[in-house]
Amino acid sequence: MDFIEELTWRGMIHTVMPGTEEELKKGMTIAYLGIDPTADSLHIGHLCGVMMLRHFQRCGHKPLALIGGATGMIGDPSGKSAERNLLDEATLRHNQEAIKKQLARFLDFDSGAPNRAEMVNNYDWTKDVTFLDFARDIGKHITVNYMMAKDSVQKRLNGEARDGLSFTEFTYQLLQGFDFLHLYQDKNCKLQLGGSDQWGNITTGTELIRRKLGGEAYALTCPLITKPDGSKFGKTESGNVWLDARYTSPYKFYQFWLNVSDAEAEKYLKIFTSLPKEEIESLVEEHAQNPGARPMQRRLAEEVTVMVHGRDEYDKAVEASKILFGNATDEALRNLDEKTLLEVFEGVPTFSIAKEKLEAGVPLLDFLAVETNVFPSKGEARKMVQQGGVSLNKQKVADPNSSVTADLLLNGKYILAQKGKKNYFLITADSES
């Protein structure tokens, strides 16, 4: 596959430095992409860059994932209106290992292939460089005029930041340029990939290589992904959508992709999956014929969730979705872990009942209309039960004179009551203290 051609039809190219395509056609090329290690998980805002590396490797080239251990201690002014918190080395090393495990789902690090991926950390070649060495060997090659002209610097100096731009952040582009120079010399890395907001920093690196070594290096950036309203992609009301299940469960991760708009789904299938062009075009056509079935969103959610969390977690997320929107069984409901159960029924009305009462048994009508307010009266509850409109844990209740016992508790704590088709209530059994 041709890397430029692949990224072009996927809509993943913003700017390409002249000569890049010719360099890639010479044979296996080495490229790197920088990843911010300020958390011990990637979020989906990182995914476009990660997919660039994935496509790069699939096209026969060698990807380097650079963890910004040094630059992460400084903070990049690009797209920021304030300086970030600086992290210590122990935290950065922990974050690096966690990120590598996630990247291994996208990239081949372990085979003997010549283009197997490598992870590098710029802290390793920066930590022992003295300020005087850096000023003499790096700083003298790039003028202040050149650095001042960068958009990221201009925006901060022109009032977007309340506190202006510190010298620390001003030097960021030199540090990133130093990374490119080091990898060019040490790994024969000729290309840097990144988001379009990184263009200024990347070209500082190509300029440093040209001025210091007389070498040729190249740059390619992808567009920044935004929501239709222009806001930051990957942000929800509860924050970032993370790749680590500790921060965003596979169910919520799956739901994020399942709920994107039609226009977003077509775009995201190209950017966030490895599906071939013909298959995506077929999905678009299928969607146009039956948009209500949402085939694009379903396939997108499947591809990305399996890639990040694996097939088993994807299957569990699909089962969890059926519980709320389909004809799931009592067994499927009991197989949900507590966290996913609470996420599936987030926002439904909740009631509490003493666990001791359930252990003794509570008459059904009392459970529905006295101990809880699922129904306003026992008479209304009786009528709905007789009409077959009441379920507990997805099983219809036929006898209004039956009792509710602790045997029904999900995860030893919850009972799901359903009135009609769409009205859910989550009852929590609390132990009396």
Assembly state of the chains shown:
single chain
- Terminal CA distance reads 66 Å
What's the rounded overall pLDDT mean?
Answer: 90
Biggest β-sheet: strands ordered side by side in the sheet: 1-6-5-2-3-4
Helices and strands, with pairings:
Layout lengths: L2 H7 L5 E2 L3 H5 L5 E6 L11 H12 L3 E6 L21 H15 L14 E4 L1 H4 L4 H7 L6 H5 L2 H10 L6 H4 L1 H16 L3 E5 L3 H15 L4 E5 L12 E2 L2 E2 L9 H9 L3 H11 L4 H13 L5 H15 L1 H15 L4 H5 L3 H7 L5 E5 H6 L1 E2 H6 L8 H9 L3 E3 L2 E2 L6 E2 L9 E6 L3 E8 L3
Parallel strand pairs: 2-3, 2-5, 3-4, 5-6, 9-15
Antiparallel strand pairs: 1-6, 7-8, 10-13, 11-12, 11-14, 14-15
Helix pairs in contact: 10-11, 12-15, 12-16, 13-15, 15-16
Verbal overview:
By secondary structure, the chain is α/β, with parallel strands linked by helices. It is 45% helix and 14% strand. The chain is built from 21 helices and 15 strands. It has a six-stranded mixed beta sheet, with helices on both faces. A five-stranded mixed beta sheet has the order 9-15-14-11-12. α4 (89-103) links the parallel β3 (62-67) and β4. α12 packs antiparallel against α15 (295-309) and α13 packs parallel to α15 (295-309). The longest helix is centred in the middle third of the chain and has 16 residues, at 172-187. The protein is elongated, with a radius of gyration of 27 Å. The relative contact order is 0.10. The mean pLDDT is 90.
